[in-house]
Design goal:
Structural class: alpha+beta
Oligomer: single chain
Number of strands: 9
Mean pLDDT: 91
Helix content: 40-55%
Low-confidence stretches: none
Largest sheet: 9 strands, mixed
Order of helices and strands: HHHHHEEEHEHEEEEEHHHHHHH
Strand content: 5-15%
Strand order of the largest sheet: 3-2-1-4-5-9-8-7-6
Shape: globular
């Protein structure tokens, strides 16, 4: 890999995934490989439109692709299924490589061994230029993303575009995805099951009970208007520092007739009180760890910030549901490629984005000092669990500027080293 160019690394990854999915076909106009590759270049290059992008492709890559050919491909249902299959294959492949390289940030927590852990949330984009009005108005295109809290990779994209609804709800899309997870069963690397951390819009205790039988569990916060019936208080180890801030742990019921668990928590730093709800038995996982997993859910918001601000993906490419699906999965693959490249630089070249980590460490130290000055402390797990830092804009710029140049990764190390040194 050290002697490969960034372009060769990217093409090799795409080729590997296409060889391992069944939905690919031979197309004379624009191959599946080229659709994904040119789409990922469009995400990286911050082009303002499809015409802008393909003029750049023609003038810089000496590769002429008709804009109409690309947009015809975006309307293909078969291509949308292919992109979904390729993005799933790429996630599985890269997550395995990252975990083998000790890139699992939750590895220090032995309670979580054997569980795959994801955060889920939705984000929206501005409608496409030629979008149709619904009741005289334009509505944004929404997509639900699922992100691995172990590696920071995006695991799935669930577009919500529905011509019959103005603002489709996120829960049905997640429900369908979780039902597929339940049917497939736990992955061999995670035999204990799957934990999904979501916001309060995803509360449905009947559904939670259904998927728990298939070892898929949910974590969220309770809604303000919820009045769960406390059936029994559960004992936990109050001397364990991982449980710092946990006040009570209850088995609770509700009008639906299903039971779950509620954690009353007081933040040691701010003394604010919170109540968390989960379907996983807290005797298997410490209640303080469950609270921390919800705290880590914010990581997906920083990913959305990267997608919208650093990669400038704020507008849909085309109007069809197939196009929204293809764009969502190409964004996912581009983000995961950048995450993997970041790990390669750290693992193979001992290059770390020090400016980003220093900034995070200074912020944490400031919080610790402020809390200490008033006789408080930070939750211990904040220091125990390494934080997945966001992709810096400087790093993305360097990849963007050299993705199509015939320079090996080895020769780009001085450039990445300079990129990592300081903000510019």
């Amino acid at each position: 890999m050290k002697e490969q160019t960034l372009q060769e690394i990217l093409n090799q990854m795409i080729g590997y995934c296409l060889d391992h999915v069944r939905s690919t076909r031979t197309c004379r106009g624009l191959s599946d490989h080229d659709l994904i590759y040119l789409g990922m270049l469009r995400v990286l290059n911050r082009c303002s439109s499809g015409r802008d992008h393909f003029q750049w492709v023609e003038e810089n890559l000496d590769c002429e692709v008709a804009t109409s050919t690309f947009f015809d491909a975006l309307a293909s249902e078969r291509r949308s299924r292919m992109c979904a299959d390729v993005s799933a294959c790429l996630f599985t492949y890269l997550e395995k490589l990252i975990r083998q390289a000790n890139g699992d940030c939750l590895q220090p927590l032995t309670d979580l061994q054997g569980y795959s852990i994801y955060a889920v949330d939705g984000t929206c984009m501005e409608h496409a230029t030629h979008a149709t009005r619904v009741d005289g108005k334009y509505y944004p295109d929404n997509t639900v993303y699922i992100e691995s809290l172990r590696t920071g990779l995006l695991a799935a994209a669930l577009p919500l575009k529905d011509p019959d609804k103005k603002r489709p709800h996120e829960f049905p899309a997640l429900r369908r995805a979780v039902e597929r997870m339940a049917e497939q069963g736990p992955a061999p690397a995670f035999p204990k099951g799957t934990i999904i951390v979501a916001d309060r819009a995803y509360i449905n205790t009947a559904f939670w009970a259904q998927i728990s039988r298939h070892r898929v569990y949910m974590i969220t916060r309770t809604k303000e208007n919820m009045r769960p019936v406390k059936c029994a208080e559960i004992a936990f180890d109050r001397t364990d520092e991982d449980n710092a801030g946990v006040q009570h742990l209850f088995l609770v019921g509700g009008n639906s007739g299903y039971t779950h668990y509620v954690i009353d928590y007081t933040d040691p730093e701010t003394h604010d009180t919170y109540q968390y709800m989960t379907s996983i038995d807290p005797t298997r996982i410490k209640p303080g760890v469950i609270v921390h997993l919800y705290r880590m859910r914010w990581q997906i918001e920083t990913t959305f910030n990267t997608i919208k601000r650093s990669l400038c993906q704020q507008k849909s490419w085309a109007n069809s549901k197939a196009a929204t699906t293809i764009q969502s999965h190409i964004i996912l693959m581009t983000h995961n490629f950048l995450r993997y490249l970041e790990l390669v630089l750290e693992h193979d070249f001992d290059l770390v984005d020090r400016k980003v980590r220093n900034k995070a460490e200074k912020r944490l130290k400031k919080r610790r000092d402020n809390a200490s000055s008033i006789g408080r402390c930070l939750p211990p797990l904040l220091s125990k669990i390494p934080r997945i830092t966001r992709l810096s804009l400087q790093f993305i710029r360097t990849v963007r500027n050299f993705i199509c140049r015939n320079i090996s990764l080895q020769k780009l190390i001085p450039r990445f080293s300079k990129t990592y040194r300081a903000y510019r």
